[in-house]
Amino acid sequence: MMATRRIITLPPTLTGADAIAFARDGLKRGADVIEVRTDLHAPGDVDPDALARVMPLLVSERGKPLPAPWVQAAWRVDRDVERAQDMDAPPGKLLASHHAEGPLTTAEALRRWSRPIPPDALVKHVEPMDGPAHLDVLLQTQAALSQRFGAERVTVLGMGPVAIPARAVLSRRNGLEYVAMGGPWTAAPGQRLLDDVVREHRKAKDPHALRLGILGTAIPHSRSPRIHRQPFDRIDLAEDAPVEAVVDALLPHYAGFAVTSPFKMRLAKHTGSQLDAINTLVRRGSRWESFNTDTEGARAVLERLGSKDVAVLGDGGSTQALRLVAAEQRFALRVVKRAEIHAPLSGDWVWTWPDRVAPPENLRFQGARVAVIAYGAPGRRVAAEIFRRGGTPLLLGAAWFVAQARRQRQLWETAT
Predict the structure, then answer these.
(1) Under the GO molecular function aspect, what terms does this record hold (predicted)?
(2) Please, are residues 19 and 46 in contact by the beta-carbon 8 Å criterion?
(3) What architecture is the 295-402 domain classified under in CATH?
(4) Is the pLDDT of residue 304 over 50?
């Protein structure tokens, strides 16, 4: 695995002392370079010398010209090979880049790089992805550019709503990785989280191992990347993303996936599972085999509740696991849908709605215990909502997660 520099981009809302604080936080968390772009900041917004004293400074020309003090303080100067009149930069500082407006074939990409490039320049090629399968093209482009310029100089990046796993795969042979610090702002669609990239760098034992990952929507809270072996990628996709095409395109590169809301039922159908919902994919040569280790989590939660009279709010993938375990233990599990809620609820319940889904306005509890199977910040938000509506929340998400994750780990060890 190449030694890749991790680059964070200064958000447009941060200037002056706040910009310095951002750079220091990034350095503490494992970033190697701070980027400042002319489309995000005016010349007087930042002190380039002060930023460069925190960590190496990358200055990028985007539309507006680069101020001379920025160039003087910079470790590297990013100029576009097509839009710039020349690629002027002090010796040893040029980062020659090309940002394509649309997906390219490898032959088209190489034609964009026909211009002579100084031998001490770094090379960065970026293009939007028209779908998950475009990863194969980007890998070919990366190999061709590396052959032309030298592998240690080249970075190839995909952009778009399905670019996160592509960037993870490409990163093994990239010299630079542009990462997000977390929160609502990101410098480009498809960036991985800094914490995930640092964790992989520190803990991955085999540089050639097939990757693992978690597929879901709104999953920055997921603990899976922290407990499973590396490399483990957080693949956050929109609810309407083509997740079926994503897993098919990633089959050559991944040993398995954890699957969470809202893709458990879609991927069960896609993989031909006999189950209604799955939460685990394991590579078997040229196909995916699917499993539902949520049954282990469901068993742990129902044991903690200690009741044979349990009802469930919501009817998604987690509810399917609860049904299976209830059938094993020979008791009927009542599933109550939103439209069926009319009076205050009592007894023992399991709340399966994700915290991003608003509960019905008329939902109320009366003397009810309600198991929360989300964990972390989402679990705490759900618990607060239950308490506000008169229920007693039981935070059992960690018990569910640990039980099912233990079984996932065993299954991924059998991947072929």
Answers:
(1) shikimate 3-dehydrogenase (NADP+) activity
(2) yes
(3) 3-Layer(aba) Sandwich (3.40)
(4) yes
